[in-house]
Amino acid sequence: MRFARLGNVGTEIPVVIDGDRSLDLRSITADIDGAFLSGDGVERARAAVAAGELPEVADAAALRTGAPIARPSAVYCVGMNYAAHAAESGSEPPKQIVMFMKAPNTIVGPYDDVAIPRGSEKTDWEVELGIVIGRRASYLDSPAEARAHIAGFVMANDLSERDWQIAVSGGQWSKGKSAPGFCPTGPWLATDDELNADDVRLRSFVNGEARQDSRTADLIFDIDTIVWTLSQYLVLEPGDLVLTGTPEGVALSGRFPYLSAGDVVELDIEGLGAQRQQYISA
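^ thats the sequence. predicted structure below, dont judge the formating
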């Protein structure tokens, strides 16, 4: 199934996407959140679609597309998880998972404008597969248990201010990761049966020019290993977002200019749709 949220910021309508229709889920849930994902919400939505019980949202195409999940309790990120990206960053592929965090309030819609932060000279793009947690995960015994704790997958742009991340970070990446709007997410959340998330193509473009082009099969630490490993150090709650890393082709490589006002970034991942953001001055 594919779930989305439509409407103005703070008043988004939860919907299930059925072909070219957006069906209103408010009779089942107030939002696409941890409670919906960890309970019987997905099954109830599936049954309601099959029974024809959900009304179509009028003028859905005219509504803003919000992030497909309500604000999670945490956004965890895995760094340097593609060997070629580690190399372009000047690092060896990590032997242990590199984890950092983004502020949950960075999550915005996939087509929302993004402001270049004040004083930023090195705002960078990063297309990433995102894991949405569906069941509380703590001290999982093995990676084989991970998939049962995943509600589905989303696309995200893990935007970064590289000077803040590296030069003035104090050793912690999150300063360069948590500016307003630095996590465009969506357009939809797809359940595991909608795609083979272990091997999908992901790409990014800046002003129509290709930047990143890879597959999630090239992840150093795969989806199940990421969830299992994180569960040994922290508790993953339903609705939490885990970003899995970005492939090569970012501005940090030195091959491309950083973003500036007026630029347009487009992203796509097989099975998870496409994003487009216009970058503006703060």
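The chain has two domains: 2-65, 70-281.
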